[in-house]
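Deliverable D5.2: sample structural annotation.
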Amino acid sequence: MNARRLWSRILVVVGGIAMLVGAIDPMEGSLLILPGSGLFAIGTFLGQNERWLIAYRVWVFVLIAIGVGALWGLSMVGGIGGSSGVSPWWAVLMMPYPIGWLMGIWGPESPRWMLWLGIGVGLWYLTIFAIALSKSAFVGVNFVIAIIGVLTIGGCINSLVRDRSR
């Protein structure tokens, strides 16, 4: 195995692990997820994969970067909703972050280990949802977390089944 191929595999594994570990706490974890998605894209490029796959992984990185930028920007101005005076609709600016993360986890050519661990992250999100409901915490955000958990599990299972049929 040449050095370029070795580095490609290392970067894909390290980037994938960073994206999964960062998802345990999506806000603070965004500081792991963003560089992780960048490493994942660079690893794909170094592996001399097809151009469409490289473009896909770069697009995942761009979506995550836009969403994380909005997340931290809105956090710096005091958050959204409640007493902050910022309409909850501004949260729409953060949507590229979970969309990009989902695309990165169960997108095309995702390693099988990443799909299996992605199911674990989805189950974690459903656990967070159940705990928050038992504590009667803010319900709107809880449902978003549950939806992301279900989408993660469903997307990972779909990718595993699709890969198995090839």
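Annotation notes: The longest helix spans residues 51-76. The radius of gyration is 17 Å.
The annotation will be released with the project's public dataset once the embargo ends.
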